[in-house]
Design goal:
Elements (H helix, E strand, L loop, with lengths): L5 E5 L5 E2 L2 E2 L3 H11 L2 E6 L6 H11 L8 E3 H15 L5 E6 L2 H9 L2 E3 L6 E4 L7 H12 L3 E4 L5 E2 L6 E2 L1 H12 L4 E2 L5 H11 L6 E5 L2 H10 L3 E5 L18 E3 L8
Parallel strand pairs: 1-4, 1-13, 4-5, 6-7, 6-8, 8-9, 9-12, 13-14, 14-15
Antiparallel strand pairs: 2-3, 10-11
Helix pairs in contact: 3-4, 3-7, 5-6
Length: about 260
């Protein structure tokens, strides 16, 4: 039996809930570090840079460096970079809807952000979706730009309640343009595979830890990883049986994981 030494860990609902630490998450991370385990914190949220999220986690009581955080924006940028290299293009072009977490990653992947005949329209998330900008994206996609979206989540949390997220806006652009997006983030195994490559580890030696059956657990299963569902987020134990796939283990929280 292969010894498990590596962990991909969802962030929201697993390590933190909003800005509050999940009890025992700091001790779990300390155990990972003490054992010298390879680990990466994953999030479908493309708005913030890894440095921003590292600072947020530190404020919550978790010492996780930026290089241990992997966002859907970074996964999207790595995908776009691979496409640019495959096409032997020195530079790509993209029209981007998103915040600094996405735009910085797109620039780093060798792309210029422009609204003039871009190769791609890249949809992320933003604090305020602008109808004029969304209309421009629709027209560019209809005119032939490839449509990429960071993640399929239809809504996200806010202090006042749920807000429309990338998946909802992608549906609007798809309906208006007639072109379907390619989603990079969870549950697409592409994000998991690029995360594994980023760490330089193999799926058979890695566990996916998450709080959602329809993103974290299915992505882990489809990527060939063992999976742990924690009940500290959105999923209740009684919800699990209705899915045609099951996690390897169900635990109350990461506090119960002994790496």
């Amino acid at each position: 039996m292969v010894s498990v030494r590596n962990y991909l860990i969802d962030m929201d609902g697993v390590l933190v809930r909003g800005h509050a630490l999940v009890p025992g998450a700091d001790e779990f991370v300390a155990r990972l570090k003490a054992r010298g385990a390879e680990y990466l914190v994953l999030t479908n949220n493309p708005m913030y840079t890894a440095g921003d999220l590292s600072h947020r986690l530190q404020n919550s009581g978790l010492d996780i460096p930026a290089e241990r955080i992997y966002t859907s924006a970074l996964a999207t940028a790595r995908f776009l970079q691979s496409q640019r290299v495959a096409l032997e293009k020195a530079q790509g072009t993209a029209f981007v809807i998103g915040e600094s977490g996405l735009t910085e990653a797109i620039h780093a992947a060798g792309y210029v952000i422009t609204d003039h005949q871009p190769d791609y329209v890249v949809l992320g998330e933003t604090r305020s979706y602008n109808l004029e900008i969304v209309t421009k994206a629709i027209r560019l996609v209809a005119a032939g730009a490839h449509f990429i979206a960071t993640n399929p989540d239809p809504v996200g949390p806010s202090e006042g309640g749920v807000v429309p997220a990338c998946g909802a806006m992608a549906a609007l652009i798809e309906r208006a343009s007639g072109k379907s997006p390619f989603f990079v983030g969870k549950p697409n195994p592409l994000m998991m595979r690029t995360a594994l490559n980023y760490l330089g580890v193999h799926s058979e030696e890695t566990v996916m830890v998450g709080d959602r059956m329809d993103t974290d657990i299915v992505a882990g299963i489809e990527s060939g990883m063992d999976t742990i569902l924690v009940l500290s987020g959105v999923t209740r134990r009684e919800d699990v049986a209705r899915f045609p796939y099951q996690p390897g283990r169900i635990l109350g929280s990461v506090a119960e994981i002994e790496p």
